Amino acid sequence: MPATASLIPVIASAASHRRGACHPCASFVALLCALVALACEPQPAATPAVPSQPEANSDTTHHVIAEDSALRFPFVPDPARTPGATLDVTAADICVPGYARKVRNVPAAVKRQAYAEYGILSHQPGDYEVDHLISLELGGSNSIRNLWPQSYRTHPWNARVKDALENNLHKRVCAGTLDLTTAQGVIASNWVSGYRKYVRPTPPPPRASKHRRRSTRSHRSAQPAVP
Q1: Which of 26, 61, 121, 205 has its CA 20 to 30 A from that of 221?
Q2: Which residues neighbour 42 within 8 Å (Cβ) at sequence distance 6 or greater?
Q3: What is the pLDDT of residues 79-92, one digit of tens each?
C-alpha cells in the first residue's frame, strides 16, 4: 500500500474526534481525505511508443542476395568506382550513324583494370562484358570511371536488358523528346530505375537460346509421325 494511502485512516480518526467541536474543521479534514484518496488511485501504465517502421523499398538493386545471381554480382555498379564519365559531344554528334563504333577504344589492359576494380580475378567467356555505364551512343567515354564488369548471368537485370534501355534512350534523344544530359543522368544514377521508367516495369522473360531451340527442333524431327 502506498505511504499516502496509510494517512487516510489517521486523518479520518482525527476528524471523528473533532467532529463535535469544529464542524468547519471536520469538513476540511474530509476534503483532505478525498484529495489523498484521489492521489492514491493507481494510474494507468504509459503505453510504450512504437518506433516507426521505415517504408519498404522494393528496389533492391543495390543489394546482392543468393537469388540475384549465380555469381553474387550486383545489378548496378558501385558509384564510388564507376560514377560515369562522358565526352564533350552533343546530341547531333551521337545521332550520326556509326558514331559509337568510331569512338570505341578500350584496350585489354583497361578491361583487366575494370575487372580488378571489382575484385574479379577470373571469369568464363559469357559471364561478363566490360560495359560503358553511360553508353557510347549516349556520349559516354572510355574512361575507367565509366567502365565496369556487367554480368550476363544476373536475372532479371543483366547486360542485355541494359542494352535495351540504352537503345531506348538513344532513340528519344535523337527524336528530340529527351535531353542528352538527362538521358546520361538516368543511366548513370541507376539504370534499373531508368529501365522501369522508360522501357517497362520488368524485363521480359529470357528467350530460349538458339542452341536450345535447335536441340528441340532436332528432338521433334526424330519423333515418329502420329498416324
Answers
A1: 205
A2: none
A3: 999 999 999 999 99
Give 139-156 pLDDT, tens digit per residue: 999 999 999 999 998 888
The number of folded domains in the chain is 2
Angle of the 159-175 helix axis to the 180-198 helix axis, nearest 10? 130
* Count of C-beta atoms within a 10 Å radius of residue 30: 14
Residue-range definition of the domain harbouring residue 179: 91-205
* Per-residue pLDDT at 105: 96
Alpha-carbon distance 90 to 183, whole Å? 12
Is 84 domain-assigned? no
Flag whether the pTM goes above 0.90. Answer: no
Claim to verify: residue 115 and residue 13 sit in the same structural domain? no
Domain check: are 34 and 104 in the same one? no
Q: At what angle do helices 7-17 and 23-40 cross, to 10 degrees?
A: 170
Residue 52, in any domain of the structure:
no
Looking at residue 174, its amino acid is C
Grid cell listed for 142: 572510355
Q: Cell match 538493386: residue?
A: 61
